[in-house]
Design brief:
Length: 331
């Protein structure tokens, strides 16, 4: 009797298929990753979980074909206790699954074309699976090849040249809304990777007063020091005072639960003499309660709103995408 063939499958949702309201429900922090992939691996044998602000995907090896799709969607929903509709998910098997991962690793399936963060995130996903004991030989070869393709894409093409990061896109959105940022005070909530991207983009733009807020004041001070003498730092516990003095707030902590709500913002809006406050939430899960956007004088944007800004980075780079696609075919 012929044994069933082992199939590499991927199921996931991303910024193209699902809004941030749904993506945040399936977002896994680095602390959650190990336990989640271990739980998935118990049933699947081989599994890798990739979770970023753009996407959540599970790569698995199991027998069967398209029937695996419903199983994997059910497992993803189950591990988070969500009930996201199956229509939001995509699924690939065999060579198409491999090609999809290669495109992801190369940065051409991201909201920000050519962004470099994804390559490190693919490595982290593989590392988490290794630690959980769910990275089998098939998936190990696949992920190593995808990382190799991602490296080649960045060294052999210009796909990453002048790429906009999510952080720099947030700054561009702020400039589009308010014009020159000279003399403006920008509160950056997070001293982590997203906060650093935003703060560095602000520093490169010049003119704005940067204030970094973080749960750990020391980390906020360290990032502020990188930005130069014009930057300040506050602890997250002093958020209300920092909001009162800000013109723009860019937040990217991806904490579990909202860290900014109407009760934080309403006092900050008092005594501003009509001066508005612009919030740009680049976190997944979101940092800022959507109800904040209903407060008079407040304008709130989330990560899905900056897609139009990042799309401008595609101009003139379609040829580079084609070169990356050729590298993927070689791999």
């Amino acid at each position: 009797m012929k044994s069933e063939q082992t199939v590499v499958s991927v199921v996931g949702l991303n910024h193209q298929t699902s809004p941030v309201e749904e993506r945040e429900q399936l977002a896994f922090s680095s602390e959650e990753m190990a336990a989640a992939v271990a739980r998935l691996g118990e049933a699947l044998g081989g599994a890798v979980l990739l979770s970023t602000c753009n996407r959540t995907e599970i790569y698995a090896t199991l027998t069967g074909g398209p029937s695996n799709t419903a199983l994997l969607i059910s497992m993803l929903n189950g591990v988070k206790g969500t009930a996201i509709d199956t229509s939001r998910f995509y699924a690939y098997q065999h060579a198409e699954a491999a090609r999809h991962l290669f495109r992801v690793s190369a940065g051409i399936d991201s909201m920000v074309l050519g962004e470099s963060q994804i390559l490190g995130q693919v490595r982290e996903a593989m590392s988490a699976a290794t630690q959980a004991g769910t990275l089998n030989g098939t998936l190990s070869r696949l992920f190593h090849s995808a990382i190799s393709a991602g490296k080649r894409a960045r060294t052999e093409t210009h796909i990453g040249r002048h790429a906009v990061s999510v952080g720099s896109a947030a700054v561009t959105l702020a400039r589009n809304r308010l014009g020159d940022l000279a003399g403006k005070t920008v509160l950056v909530i997070s001293a982590g990777s997203m906060g650093k991207l935003a703060a560095r983009a602000l520093a490169e733009t010049g003119g704005a007063q940067i204030v970094v807020a973080n749960r750990t004041l020391q980390r906020a001070r360290e990032l502020a020091a990188e930005m130069g003498r014009a930057a300040g730092a506050v602890a997250l516990s002093d958020l209300s005072g920092a909001l009162a003095g800000a013109d723009i707030v860019i937040s990217g902590t991806a904490a579990d639960g909202f860290i900014v709500g109407p009760r934080d913002v309403q006092p900050a809006m008092a005594g501003r003499n009509g001066r508005g406050l612009l919030f740009i939430d680049i976190a997944v899960p979101r940092d800022i309660n959507p109800a904040v956007g209903e407060i008079a004088g407040v304008h709130l944007f989330d990560i899905d709103d900056i897609e139009a800004v990042t799309a401008s980075g595609m101009n003139g780079r379609q040829h580079e995408v084609e070169r990356v696609e050729a590298i993927i075919e070689e791999e």
